[in-house]
Amino acid sequence: MGKALIIGAGGVAGVVVHKCCQNSEVFEEICIASRTKSKCDALKEKLDGGKTKITTARVDADKVEELVALINDYKPDIVINVALPYQDLTIMDACLETKTDYLDTANYEPLDTAKFEYSWQWAYREKFEKAGITAVLGCGFDPGVTGVFSAYAAKHYFDEIIYIDILDCNGGDHGYPFATNFNPEINIREVSAKGSYWENGGWVETEPMEIKRVYNFPEVGEKDMYLLHHEELESLAVNIKGIKRIRFFMTFGQSYLTHLKCLKNVGMTSIEPIEFEGKQIVPLQFLKAVLPDPASLGPRTVGKTNIGCIFQGKKDGKEKTYYLYNVCDHQECYKEVGSQAISYTTGVPAMIGAMMVMTGKWKKPGVYNVEEFDPDPFLEALNKWGLPWQEDFNPTLVE
Questions:
Q1: Counting beta carbons within 10 angstroms of the beta carbon of residue 175, is it exposed (0 to 12), middle (13 to 18) or buried (19 or more)?
Q2: What tens digit of pLDDT does each residue of 74-133 get?
Q3: What's the CA dihedral at 97, 99, 101, 103 to 10 degrees?
Q4: Which residues contact 302 (CB under 8 A, 6 or more apart)?
Q5: Which alpha helices (H) appear in the chain, and where do they start and end?
Q6: How far is CA 298 from the centre of its chain?
Q7: For the stretch 46-66, what's the b/e string if a residue is b when 16 or more beta carbons lie within 10 angstroms of its beta carbon?
Q8: What is the DSSP letter of 194?
Q9: Distances in whole angstroms, Cα of residue 398 to Cα of each of 113, 133, 198, 203, 225
Q10: What average pLDDT does this structure show over 278-301?
Q11: Any idea what the Cα angle at residue 237 is, between residues 378 and 12, rounded to 5°?
Q12: CA 133 to CA 366: how far, in whole Å?
């Protein structure tokens, strides 16, 4: 079928590479590229010998000219961006220049401010349309599958969706006093930012971790969860017609929150550069360097994740509720691809999204969020490629 260029070599990239190799009918060739070529080579070594032809390359994803040179040399059908969110725009620029389809898992975030929103990437819509290429934004789990779930609910079960609550529960335990399940810098920026939710056409802002609820998650149990701002709220507010409120909740254990509070109080979560021994350092980047690498958590993480959406709305004039979710087991993921479930739940949808574009099911010129495409072939693929979903037509609602 074709070739994919995968930019990034962290935990999520490892899952994408494994899954592309499992799906060799679509991904005949892949190139893994990142700033540290040895990481790409290590991934290639693990998977060489299968039907998918793997090559590796060194590239600085901050430099458009390096990206353009690599794309022109390799000539992929799609670029799968699983690098850092700070690099989305340079990679999109390179895709524009080379007229190559693009997919990422997290929206752009400038380095100097903890603000992630779609405006920067949505600004590329006309350019991608004119170039005749497709960009799929936020094709991980949340954002990603949560958007596909919303499109599926709207297509099959509702005339009108009024409320959506997105619930992200990680019931896993890695045994460390404090560690983050994905890039510590992004994770801590997200959690220590103010929360917000969409209601009646506008944003309602909350203090960090101000709104707490307790929810009993299928197969995981009762957990404390907190309202956060999350990027898919922004696109779903635009794309799901008639929506009155969307909220996003994520579970956190007390130990994590206590450590985070202490670190914040002493200035370790700051993104403002400080002078240290004659050098400028960013405290949060230094903290990232001393924390366990999320990619190393796989072998020691036990338990399950449960991520899904609860919908409330109307069908044929009657009120209706519907809960669509996936449960993923950390140890099963590790056995299959050598990663914990957080990387797995992001990497599998990235591969599926790329497959949707390459097979023409999600191919249209422009810049799109996942909920703007037909959800059915994607959800069918989720069942096949390791993230089966479950439905509940009488869920407990979040108050």
A1: exposed
A2: 999 999 999 988 999 999 999 999 999 999 999 888 776 656 789 999 999 999 999 999
A3: 10
A4: 172, 173, 330, 331
A5: 11-22, 37-47, 64-74, 88-98, 119-122, 125-131, 145-156, 184-192, 231-239, 254-265, 283-290, 330-337, 341-358, 375-384
A6: 18
A7: ebeeeebebebbebebbebeb
A8: P
A9: 32, 40, 15, 19, 11
A10: 88
A11: 45
A12: 6
CA separation for the pair 143, 154 (Å, rounded): 17
pTM over 0.90: yes
Percent of all residues in the chain with a pLDDT value above 90, rounded to a whole number = 81
How many residues are given for the chain?
399
Place of tokens 């962290």: 10
Report the 10 Å Cβ neighbour count for 336: 15
Q: Is residue 198 pLDDT above 70, yes or no?
A: yes
Record the tokens describing residue 89, joined without a space. 């725009």
Query: How do residues 348-382 score in pLDDT, each as one tens digit?
Result: 999 999 999 999 999 999 999 999 999 999 999 99
Taking the mean position of all CA atoms in its chain, how far away is CA 295? 15
**For 213, phi and psi rounded to 5 degrees?**
-135, 160
Two structure tokens written together for 36: 């540290």
**Token digits of residue 216:** 């009993």
Amino acid at 167: L
Q: Which pair of tokens denotes residue 95?
A: 């895709």
d(CA 337, CA 181) in angstroms, rounded, equals 16
Placement of tokens 């909740």 in the chain: 249
pLDDT of residue 204: 97
Mean pLDDT of the chain: 94
pLDDT digits (tens, 9 = 90+) for 50-59: 999 999 999 9
Contact 339, 14 (CB under 8 A): yes
Which residues does 27 contact at the CB level (< 8 Å), separation at least 6? Answer: 1, 2, 3, 4, 20, 21, 52, 351, 354, 355, 358
The C-alpha torsion from 179 through 181 and 186 to 191, rounded to 10°, is -70
Is residue 184 predicted with pLDDT exceeding 90?
no
| Terminal C-alpha separation, the chain | 48
